[in-house]
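Query structure, 254 tokens:
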């Protein structure tokens, strides 16, 4: 599968993967900032953003997509950042392909199974009559009945695009995502560990980290470091400057 990506800067490769119902657009500002030190690749994973749709989505396929992306772009070894679902992808990739990973940053996710609670959000997205609405504000009014937080609604509505005739459509493949939420919640699908340097960044107000998770992480990522920012789940969006500082210090080995 040929994935859509945006490229910035020059230097050592840095590949960034978004989370569920996100896209490379979410990382645009940080991508440009990281591009001052690295060649940054912001990648849309399958069924998201401007990448192709597929009936299937799971971490075996997402890992294979990343392998193919690196091969196609002649990237032998890279630094990886992944948020949420993207974090699961880069963790699985690193365990399967340790020689292809320099440093790894995992944002607000743990290598374990989660019950994915995005079904209500997907229901709200599906409830928007795309053939009838004439503006994003109309779509947001409908979404407000499913998601009370304006920031989350705005995040989701970034997925709403217009075609050449001006008609709205959803960039993500909502049907496939909805059908495979259990697989998106899966933990590690490859056995083994990653001995490389790894940073886990979690949001203090997020519920994705729980007591005992550091011990679980250490079994698979024995050289893991940990950092916490005062955010919810969308760490890099809520505290972009603080996140960038943490990430760059880690990547530069400071």
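Result returned for the query:
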């Amino acid at each position: 599968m040929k994935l859509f990506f945006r490229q910035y800067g020059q230097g050592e490769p840095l590949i960034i993967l978004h989370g569920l119902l996100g896209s490379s657009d979410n990382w645009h500002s940080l991508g440009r900032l990281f591009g001052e030190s690295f060649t940054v690749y912001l990648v849309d994973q399958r069924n998201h953003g401007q990448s192709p749709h597929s009936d299937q989505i799971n971490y075996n396929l997402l890992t294979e997509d990343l392998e193919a992306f690196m091969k196609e772009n002649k990237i032998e070894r890279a630094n990886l950042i992944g948020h949420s679902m993207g974090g699961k992808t880069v963790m699985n990739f690193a365990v399967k392909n340790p020689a292809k990973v320099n440093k790894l940053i995992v944002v607000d996710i743990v290598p374990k199974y989660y019950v994915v609670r995005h079904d209500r959000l997907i229901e709200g997205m599906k409830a928007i009559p795309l053939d009838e609405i004439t503006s994003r504000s109309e779509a947001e009014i409908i979404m407000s009945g499913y998601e009370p937080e304006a920031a989350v609604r705005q995040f989701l509505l970034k997925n709403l695009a217009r075609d050449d005739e001006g008609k709205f459509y959803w960039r993500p493949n909502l049907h496939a995502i909805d059908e495979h939420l259990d697989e998106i919640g899966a933990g590690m699908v490859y056995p083994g560990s990653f001995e490389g340097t790894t940073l886990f960044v979690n949001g203090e107000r997020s519920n994705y980290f729980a007591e005992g998770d550091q011990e679980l992480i250490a079994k698979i990522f024995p050289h893991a470091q940990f950092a916490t920012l005062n955010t919810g789940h969308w760490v890099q969006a809520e505290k972009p400057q603080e996140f960038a500082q943490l990430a760059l210090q880690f990547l530069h080995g400071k």
